[in-house]
Design goal:
The protein is an alpha+beta fold. The protein has 14 helices and 48 strands. The strands form 12 sheets. Strands 1, 4, 7, 8, 9 and 14 form a 6-stranded mixed beta sheet that branches. The radius of gyration is 37 Å and the shape is flat.
Length: 993
């Protein structure tokens, strides 16, 4: 017998079907290979079982390995009747087996036994070939481990052989290794193969001029395989969770309601809090020798202590403050409320109240708020003292009305010097933006300082920090004519001024102001349709801005004038994010808004495994908050301090006007705690984008999203964010009708903006939104707004260029596959297939009315086949498609460089030469395409018309097809005559300079 063995490690399974009638399964795996059987242990009541068991099959003849098949059957064990039920199977051919050093864990989708069977889930296996099983522990597994016991000859009824069924299974295969493997020589490339890069796989490269940039994806040892072309590492993939929310347990996207009452926080986990409302005190005793009292209140629960603000010389203070303590963190059975007198040396004790935690009532909305009561103060020994305190104590959840304005124990303490508003949850509304359309027509009677020179004038238009200039006009007279239209961005309420400045250029970078015109934006007329006749008006030029603002209605007989047309155009939607990421597509004019079509609900649950951004008490920690953006409504959760696994459990709602929009959720580390008034930027952790059109109505999506961020050192996973999302629309007919309407408002198509205009206006819109939100309390900082709106996505990136190139190749991969198949047909590799193609082609040419039905039938069958591979979850950021997991360090450094650059001249010169090389190749490709197109045009101009006139079209089509599909016996190594004729046709490339 041969020493060669096949090793199989059964790792785990995910998302199995429930078969025991109780929502679970007791799964085990049975392996069949070369007339041998092994079986794993049974994992009781687990839909995501983990085995990590290994087996070795004896291989009788290594030459027969490519023809052998490994079958892994997953069964559910029923203890009551000692039977089993089928959960799915995986079928692998011997051609895909690799040496032990190249083996990695792959997750295979479970296959059905029949057409009508219902199967779901994945099975993780590691399969390899070895000639020395004793070294498996060291070479494949990293450390010795005891092998699982194989099954003996399975004679019991429980392990009886199941009938094998033929199925077209998806075959997963590791790319060719640099180590020679005699068992992977003959590979069937016609089958559908999904490849994942390993450490020994060949790296794919892109040649950019003189520098050949090679990038090899890092070889992850565990890879989750999906049926789509853009699979990525399991650690970066989306994971479905089944949390216990306020409305019940989420199972398969549906809420299984229990005895929990329905409330407005049904998409988040209920968090129980102890609420303490300190209202006021009266008749407090005097403590100071001066006869005054400076009281404040301390609330103590276990290790937590919160204090109110203190009042100076007040025996009847009123605080009206609420404190919230997380109930699961309180390790005490006693609540103490102490009134203290603030002193310079040591604070004096005034009185105390004690509450037994077991006797505190529970309040559940929509119950009315608990009424506060007066309590007599006690001494430390429990004796009654002078003075009373009005207080209310109860248990509640984050749905309580007092929660948003309370001091929460897991956010920040009163001992901190930071203003509390920076750490509470807030809702922001971004300003409504309008486009300002300005038509600078002409100027008359301009007065120059030097009358012996010609006029060389332009007009500068300014709103805030936005500055645009018209072209330079030279005139022999004192009149200038431009008739140029400019676009700027303005925000409601229109408090700013539109400033026009006519300037004369008297030298290089030396412009002299001739006069100014100031137009208040609140006086500009508003238009919401395609009114090409913009109302115009003559304005008198003033010497200064103050004079222009304070101008009177007096009319000078002789004055310099400027002819302008200005309107606020509300027919556009002012984009503050790229169109494919936009969350709002409504026009600026509110009267053009359409009614909402649905409701979007978002529950921000918690984050796990966050990276520390700062150090306190000798250990790393973070102070994180989340920001969600959809439409004009921005929301910010409270900041959870000193936690790498924060729990937010906050829920928000938006009206949806268009499903072709994107919800963006970002996580940030608050850097304002230690330096509240400093200029330290909040650090970005990561963000999640969810397109609403990918969501099923009414379904609750509970997933864990990896927070991926690209750093100058490479791609990093910063943690995971758990969300619950539900999108519900009002009417299916309205949704279908909405898909027939244009994506953007009408003005974007009637008077489209150029690409350069769109980028410029979007940048101005982001700056304006950041300025407005930065003036809120607490401010939403500029770096947060820029990160949420992808403000810098338009800048050059070699990584994005490569990613788009690979997207393009993936898009055309189907056409390339059809071309390869047709090439095999033309080369008669399979004579039967070639003859059938000949017959089908003749039939379609003779009966052209069958062409469209045949094409539609083929498309229908393709769609039916691809339906099984449809995405079950909303798409998430794909690292492989983004070319983020294999990017070159220099390309990353270039991407994170500022604009303009701050790098050394030799680095900039190298990158410029590389960019020239890339552009040169693109230029060559564009020129080749133009040459071929001109030859086709020349062919159609004279030769094609003559041939088509003399030859019937059907005969011509048959002749061309039969010529391309001729037998290899009639082919030559040199190009055929038609190709030579086509290449000799003239093109216009010789007319290029």
């Amino acid at each position: 017998m041969s020493n060669v063995k096949v090793g199989v490690e059964v790792v785990s399974a995910h998302d199995l079907m429930a078969k025991d009638g109780q929502g679970s399964s007791s799964a085990f795996v049975e392996l069949h290979f070369d007339h041998q059987k092994f079986r794993t242990t049974t994992k009781e009541k687990d839909l995501n079982p983990v085995w990590n068991e290994r087996f070795h099959f004896n291989l009788s003849d290594p030459k027969t390995l490519p023809n052998l098949t490994l079958n892994a059957y997953v069964y559910n064990h029923n203890k009551q009747n000692n039977s089993r039920s089928f959960l799915g199977k995986v079928r692998l051919t011997g051609k895909s087996f690799v040496p032990c050093s190249d083996a990695i864990v792959l997750y295979y989708p479970l296959e059905k036994r029949g057409i009508f069977s219902r199967i779901k889930g994945e099975l993780g296996l590691k399969v390899f070939v070895t000639d020395d099983p004793s070294i498996v522990e060291m070479s494949c597994l990293g450390q010795p481990e005891v092998l699982s016991n194989p099954l003996p000859e399975m004679g019991s009824s429980l392990f009886s052989d199941s009938r094998s069924t033929k199925s077209q299974a998806t075959e997963l295969q590791i790319p060719d290794s640099s180590v020679s493997n005699p068992f992977t020589s003959d590979r069937d490339e016609s089958r559908r193969i999904f490849q994942q890069p390993s450490r020994s796989s060949k790296s794919y490269s892109m040649n950019f001029g003189s520098n050949e940039m090679r990038a090899e994806p890092p070889g992850s040892r565990i890879v989750r395989m999906y049926s789509g072309p853009s699979s990525q590492q399991a650690d970066y993939a989306l994971k479905e969770t089944n949390p216990l929310l306020g409305a019940g347990q989420v199972v398969g996207g549906r809420i299984v309601r229990g005895n929990r009452p329905t409330n407005s926080y049904d998409l988040v986990e209920q968090m129980s809090y102890l609420f303490v409302r300190v209202v006021r005190a009266r008749h407090l005793p005097i403590k100071d020798v001066t006869g005054s009292l400076d009281p404040y209140v301390e609330v103590k629960v276990g290790n937590y202590k919160e204090t109110t603000k203190h009042f100076e010389k007040n025996s009847n203070p009123e605080w009206n403050e609420v404190f919230a303590f997380a109930r699961d963190r309180v390790q005490s059975s006693l609540l103490e409320v102490v009134i203290m007198d603030k002193d310079m040396v040591k604070d004096d004790f005034v009185g105390i109240l004690r509450f037994d935690m077991n006797e505190i009532p529970t309040r559940v909305p929509p119950d009315s708020p608990l009424a506060p009561e007066w309590y007599l103060l006690e001494s430390k020994k429990g004796e009654k003292k002078k003075g009373e305190l009005m207080i209310a104590v109860w248990y509640g959840t984050q749905a309580d009305e007092a929660f948003p304005n309370s001091w929460i124990s897991d956010t920040i303490t009163r001992d901190s010097s930071t203003v509390s508003s920076h750490f509470r949850s807030k809702v922001y509304h971004s300003p409504r933006l309008w486009y300002v359309r300005v038509n600078v027509i002409e100027a008359q009677d301009l007065v120059l300082s030097d009358k012996n020179r010609f006029l060389d004038a332009h007009v500068k238009v300014q709103i805030g920090n936005q500055v645009l200039k018209t072209r330079m006009v030279r005139s022999r007279t004192m009149n200038a004519f431009w008739n140029e239209e400019l676009m700027l961005v303005a925000a409601e309420p229109f408090e700013e001024y539109l400033i026009f400045s006519v300037e004369d250029r008297i030298g290089h970078n030396n412009d002299v102001s001739i006069g100014k015109v100031v137009v208040p934006l609140n006086t500009v007329p508003r238009h919401a349709d395609d009114d090409r006749k913009v109302p115009t008006r003559w304005f008198n030029l003033e010497k200064s801005i103050s004079a222009a603002i304070d101008k009177h209605d007096k009319k000078d007989k002789f004055s310099s004038r400027l002819h302008l047309g200005v309107i606020l155009d509300g027919g556009y939607h002012v984009l503050d994010a790229p169109t494919h990421y936009s969350s709002d597509l409504q026009p600026a004019a509110k009267q053009l808004w359409k009614p909402s079509v649905g409701i979007l609900e978002l529950g921000i649950l918690n984050a796990d495994g966050l990276h520390p951004f700062k150090s306190r008490d000798g250990k790393g920690t973070s102070d994180t908050y989340c920001v969600a953006k959809y439409g004009q409504k921005w929301v910010r959760t409270r900041t959870i301090t000193n936690s790498l696994n924060p729990k937010y459990n906050e829920q928000y709602t938006w009206d949806v006007h268009d499903p072709a929009t994107v919800l963006t959720v970002g996580v940030f580390d608050n850097s304002q705690i230690d330096v509240p008034n400093g200029n330290i930027r909040d650090s970005k952790v990561g963000k999640v984008r969810i397109r609403l059109s990918t969501l099923e109505t009414g379904r609750v999506y509970t997933h864990s999203y990896p927070l991926l961020d690209l750093h100058p050192s490479g791609l990093k996973k910063m943690g995971e964010l758990h969300l619950a999302i539900r999108f519900s629309y009002n009417s299916f007919a309205d949704m279908v009708y909405l898909y027939s309407k244009p994506l953007l408002p009408k003005m974007h198509y009637v008077r489209p903006l150029s690409v350069m205009q769109q980028d410029q206006l979007r940048n101005q819109a982001v700056n304006m939104v950041a300025a407005k939100l930065g003036r809120a309390e607490p401010p939403l900082r500029k770096e947060v707004v820029e990160f949420m709106t992808d403000a810098h996505s338009h800048l050059w990136s070699m990584r994005r260029s490569k990613g788009n190139f690979f997207r393009l190749m993936t898009l055309f991969s189907g056409f390339f596959a059809v071309g390869r198949w047709f090439g095999e047909v033309c080369m008669w590799k399979n004579p039967v297939t070639t003859l059938l193609v000949h017959l089908l082609f003749v039939m379609l040419v003779c009966y052209p009315e069958l062409i469209l039905p045949t094409a539609f039938l083929y498309m229908f069958l393709i769609g039916l086949w691809n339906y099984r591979f449809r995405p079950r979850y909303p798409p998430h950021m794909n690292t492989t498609m983004s070319y983020a997991d294999a990017v070159h360090p220099d390309e990353l450094d270039e991407e994170f460089d500022t604009f303009p650059t701050t790098r050394r001249s030799e680095i900039v010169r190298m990158r410029y030469d590389r960019l020239r090389s890339v552009a040169g190749r693109i230029q060559t490709v564009v020129g080749d395409v133009a040459t071929q197109g001109e030859r086709v045009q020349a062919l159609l101009n004279w030769l094609a018309a003559l041939v088509l006139y003399a030859t019937p079209f059907q005969v011509l089509v048959l002749m061309v097809a039969f010529y391309f599909m001729r037998h290899p016996r009639f082919r030559h190594r040199t190009p055929p005559a038609p190709i030579n004729f086509f290449r000799r046709l003239p093109a216009r490339n010789d007319s290029m300079l």
